[in-house]
Amino acid sequence: MSLPVFHMVDRAPQPVATFSHAAEIDGWVFLTGQMPTWPGEPDRPLPEGIEAQTRRVMDNLILVLEGLGLGLENVVQARVYITQFERDYAPMNAVYQSYFAPGKLPARTCIGVTGLAVGALVEIDFVAKRP
Questions:
Q1: Would you tell me how many other CB atoms lie within 10 Å of the CB of residue 51?
Q2: 0.70 exceeded by the pTM?
Q3: Which residue of 50, 112, 114, 125 has the smallest Cβ count within 10 Å?
């Protein structure tokens, strides 16, 4: 077993805490949960509403994947955290699903939480596998 490699992706948003954008070991890539923050504009207000925030989070995850030479087709597992579960679960799902090819959805867990960093409504992390 090799040692892990820790990745920071220049085009991805600035971290909101002390972490790497991804950690990789033996072809497995673990992406840190992304917030609906804007790359290069850490002080810009978050998008309004769960749909817009989910799109921003997914786009940020894609930036990290692309920075590592990967894409959504490499994602095998996702975890979704939302602060307003009853209200936001269905609209978040609609946006999330639109990013994946039909029948190619990763395994997933969705968790209702009491709060997220930067006042976000949603955070999503991924596990991906290199070919």
A1: 16
A2: yes
A3: 114
Q: CA geometry: angle at 81 spanning 51 and 55, to 5°?
A: 25
Question: Which listed CATH number (3.40.50.620, 2.30.30.210, 3.40.47.10, 3.30.1330.40) goes with 5-129?
Answer: 3.30.1330.40
Q: Where are the domains of the chain?
A: 5-129
Per-residue confidence (pLDDT) for residue 15, from 0 to 100? 86
pLDDT at 17 over 90: no
Q: Which of 56, 32, 31, 55 has its CA nearest to residue 42?
A: 56
As a 3-state breakdown, the chain gives helix, strand, coil percent values, each rounded to 5, of 30, 30, 40
Indicate if the pLDDT at residue 1 is higher than 80.
Answer: no
